[in-house]
User: Fold this.
Amino acid sequence: MQTMVCCPDCHEKTRKKIFVDDRGNSFWACEKCGTVHEDYMWYIIASEKMAGLKDNLSKINFEGYFMIPTGIEYIGIAIANGQNETDEFPDRIECMKWLASKQREGVESSEQEEMFEVYYLDVYPDECGWTENRRVFLGNLAVSQTGDSIESGIMDAMLRFKYRDFRRQVRALTTKDPDKVYIEDCGEWFEIGEVDGRKPVYMILPAEGAI
Ligand SMILES: [Zn+2]
Assistant:
């Protein structure tokens, strides 16, 4: 979900933190002009059939807030930042309030992330080692800044990162075993490659102007 939005009143960029009142109205307040905006599109009311998909939802790079009315209770599912949390509530509004609290946590944790762009490097060997033939943009990578180092944050994010080739979803990394994969700080970017032959595979560039 988009955490930064353009306020329809003042047209400034603001964070969007959802609050739910006791009647089940959901709204967010612009942090620039203070105008309160109602919003009912921030969560999805899903069927029980979809609940069976929730494990699959968390495996792809997906973010969303779901409420599943079963007839007996309300199941809330919050998927954000690679986390998948589920809770059950007897009451619809309690479920909405819980989902909104997860949405606000998601907004706050996304502020501790740095955005990068991931490129696949097509390289060939020559007398200097490896020379870049071309690079292919694969997608954006949100890297948590709360870990030990930016390198370990990139490796953890790359373990979750998937991209689509011409027929399927491909996992960029299946291991961060230092005997197999290296990451190197190249100043302006990071390089990830195979230890064997020290062959570069991915280039991780800071995203320009990302919010
Ligand atoms: Zn505003």
Notes: Residues 7, 9-10, 12, 30, 32-33, 35 surround zinc ion (CB under 6 Å).
